[in-house]
Specification:
The structure holds two protein chains of two kinds. Chain A is an alpha/beta fold. Chain A has two domains: about 150 residues, NADH:ubiquinone oxidoreductase-like, 20kDa subunit (Rossmann fold), CATH 3.40.50; about 80 residues, no CATH class. Helices cover about 35% and strands about 15% of the residues of chain A. The radius of gyration of chain A is 19 Å and the shape is globular. Chain A starts with a strand and ends in a 7-residue tail after the last helix. Chain B is globular. Helices cover about 40% and strands about 15% of the residues of chain B. Chain B has one domain: Cytochrome-c3 Hydrogenase, chain B (Orthogonal Bundle), CATH 1.10.645. By secondary structure, chain B is α+β, with helices and mostly antiparallel strands. In chain B, helix 4 runs antiparallel to helix 6 and helix 7 runs antiparallel to helix 10. The chains are: A alpha/beta, B alpha+beta. At the A-B interface, helix 1, helix 2, helix 5, helix 8 and helix 10 of A face helix 1, helix 4, helix 5, helix 6 and strand 10 of B.
Chain lengths: ~250, ~400
């Protein structure tokens, strides 16, 4: 039997939903334990080794404080592969929507007491090399299992470039955008979720980020036709696509 | 004065630290620092359409995402003076219950249970094939299954929007869920017993006075009023004057300035039984009774879920899930709701275009912050220094804190 890959899970500025998604793989957790040596996972373990060499580091969350950044740099130095997990790690996520940060922080009750030095939330790739991505807010459990499985076999998964829209078609759902006149982001969003939300009847909010070659200019116009104002459309595209423009 | 710092707190949600100030061999002062970087949610929602808010603010926390989403929708509906249809009320309650079951099972079996087995994590116990843990994980999974059926997704559920729900769960999915719940109910005997034994050292009683959402008639997790320790009942929007949240120099979460409150499963179970005219006797000393209360609440929530699914299935299928929403009048609205770890309050001010002018969110762990400090101070008085770290972590854990939720610092 090959030796177990040593992995660590660290969270930065986030809601914790990506690590919870991994913990939500209740029936697969024994397998994860069997094939991986989990050296560090503070929500799950009291015995965390914060110095050891790692085969794989999983990093959830955006970087928004000096403490975050120091911890990220240390994690990167220890790891052969570093995976950015979830929307916050990939784009800054909803944390990046706090514009006018200086103005907001000036509004803090006793701002002089804030003990951490903070800055606008940023994706992990702004600071370190990222070797793999697990998208989503939150990711699907299957995203983790696929990734861990490929790693265990000695590889890294390839890029997945299929839009949610395609997966939605495969499931033969009624189109929420064209038939329902609802502001669905399926056509511009990276799939892999098997069109979870549209299949339930809810619009895709783009939580897995932009699919390669997404036509934002065209989609902006389609979204306007659902009755949203241009400001509202920009707000929706901004949430997980990291852009606040009209697509040109 | 010597300061013993315990950082990071492990097997809790989020980044936190406890500072124990010891002088002449005696614990003098305890400070709990909640250290997540602030994400400024109350600021980032300003100027956005009310339609966007439930989906944005549920990202405050993953474990509590369903309850945040419902709290936001309800507060905005209150601001718009909107009453949601009966179908939506039932589906939302089912989603809430699924969230409580998942959160409690996660807390009890993944975070607390290793303490009871003298293990550092469930990983060791998984490798040993611990059967009690295995059944606990199935219980956790069932909580997620309920959230998936009622909410479309276990974390950041998509079915809740202002006005009601997006889609009614499909009858085949409800029937399947019902069968899973009934199977689980048949296996509950003994499953939660590990948490009902007094394995912990004797501890002080839970010090802080209880704060709960006031319940009338049938016990539920939602209401419009707050129940105070002195018996007073206050309307939801009186929360700001009651709590007068202020920031603490050592923490990134605000906390009540007026008095110490305890909120959570134990407070709820006590209130629930008081209403039935019975005492609640968890049989375990101190704050660890909170974990017994969580176990009891899981049993209650499973049965209540079963009832709700029957209610939803009994509907004709023609009921609407949501009400049309119109704006045009400025207003403000507040909601109070029981999250798994205690009272959650959302408050929004809307302008006449339906944009958020101001927002305030008070989370259970922010409320409990001072209660946790007080409990640590009382419980650790006789603890030898070598055991302080483990004992302090056990006490903090028993409160089931959620630090991601708690960090809110904007002045409102």
């Amino acid at each position: 039997m090959t030796t177990k890959l040593r992995i660590a899970y660290q969270r930065f500025t986030s809601c914790g939903g990506c690590q919870l998604t991994l913990l939500n793989c209740e029936r697969e957790l024994p397998l994860v334990e069997k094939f991986f040596d989990i050296a560090e996972f503070p929500i799950l373990c009291s015995n965390n080794d914060s110095d050891c060499f790692l085969d794989v580091a999983l990093a959830e969350g955006s970087i928004s404080s000096v403490e975050d950044l120091q911890r990220l740099l240390a994690l990167r130095r220890r790891a052969r592969f570093l995976l950015a997990v979830g929307a916050c790690a990939l784009s800054g996520g909803v944390n990046a929507l706090a514009h006018d940060r200086e103005l907001l922080l000036a509004d803090i009750d006793g701002a002089e007491t804030l003990r951490v030095e903070t800055f606008p939330a940023q994706p992990i790739a702004n600071f370190v090399q990222v070797d793999g991505e697990i998208p989503g807010c939150p990711p699907e459990g299957s995203d983790y299992l696929r990734f861990l499985g490929v790693l265990q076999q000695g590889g890294l998964p390839g890029e997945y470039a299929v839009p949610v829209c395609m997966e939605c078609r495969l499931r033969e759902n009624r189109c929420l955008l064209i038939d329902g006149k609802l502001p669905c982001l399926g056509p511009v969003t990276r799939g892999g979720c098997l069109a979870r939300c549209p299949s339930y009847g809810a619009i895709c909010e783009g939580c897995r980020g932009a699919v390669p070659e997404a036509n934002f200019a065209e989609h902006f116009q389609l979204l306007l036709q659902t009755g949203l104002t241009a400001t509202e459309v920009r707000g929706r595209l901004e949430r997980f696509m990291g852009r606040n423009d009209e697509g040109y | 004065m010597k300061v013993i710092s315990i950082e990071p707190l492990t097997r809790v949600e989020g980044h936190g630290r406890v500072d124990l100030h010891v002088q002449d061999g005696r614990l003098q002062r305890v400070q709990l620092a909640l250290l997540e970087a602030p994400r400024l949610f109350e600021g980032l929602v300003r100027g956005r359409s009310f339609v966007e808010i439930p989906a944005l603010v549920c990202r405050i926390c993953s474990i509590c995402s369903a309850v945040h989403r419902i709290a936001a929708a309800t507060a905005i509906e209150n601001a718009l003076q909107l009453t949601i249809p009966p179908l939506a009320v039932k589906v939302r309650e089912l989603l809430l219950l699924g969230g409580h079951i998942e959160s409690h099972a996660l807390h009890l079996f993944c975070l607390i249970y290793p303490d009871l087995r003298a293990a550092e994590s469930i990983l060791i116990l998984l490798a040993k094939g611990d059967t009690s843990l295995k059944s606990g994980l199935e219980l956790k999974r069932l909580g997620n299954r309920i959230q998936e059926v009622a909410g479309g997704r276990a974390i950041h559920p998509i079915n809740i929007e202002v006005g009601g729900i997006v889609a009614s769960p499909q009858p085949p999915a409800l029937h399947a869920l019902l069968a899973e719940i009934e199977t689980m109910q048949g296996q509950l005997e003994g499953m939660l017993d590990p948490f009902k034994k007094g394995l912990y050292p004797p501890a002080a009683p839970v010090i802080a006075p209880r704060l709960t959402v006031a319940i009338s008639g049938e016990f539920s997790l939602q209401g419009n009023t707050l129940s105070l320790p002195d018996g007073r009942i206050l309307p939801a929007d009186a929360y700001a004057g009651l709590l007068k949240e202020r920031s603490l120099p050592w923490s990134n979460a605000k906390t009540p300035a007026t008095e110490i409150f305890f909120t959570g499963a134990l407070a709820r179970q006590e209130a629930h039984h008081k209403q039935q005219g019975r005492d609640y006797a968890p049989g375990v000393a101190g704050i660890h009774a909170n974990n017994v209360a969580q176990a009891d609440e899981i049993i209650w929530a499973l049965e209540r879920s079963r009832t709700l699914i029957h209610d939803i299935l009994a509907m004709t299928g023609a009921e609407v899930g949501s009400m049309p929403v119109t704006t045009g009048v400025a207003g403000s609205g507040t909601s109070v709701i029981e999250a798994p770890r205690g009272i959650l309050i959302h408050h929004y001010v809307l302008d006449d275009r339906g944009q958020i002018a101001a927002a305030d969110i008070v989370t259970p762990t922010a409320i409990n912050q001072r209660a946790i400090e007080a409990q640590l101070l009382a419980d650790l008085q006789e603890t030898p220094e070598g055991e302080l770290d483990a004992a302090a972590q056990r006490i903090v854990r028993a409160f089931d804190p959620c630090i991601s939720c708690a960090v809110h610092i904007l002045k409102v």
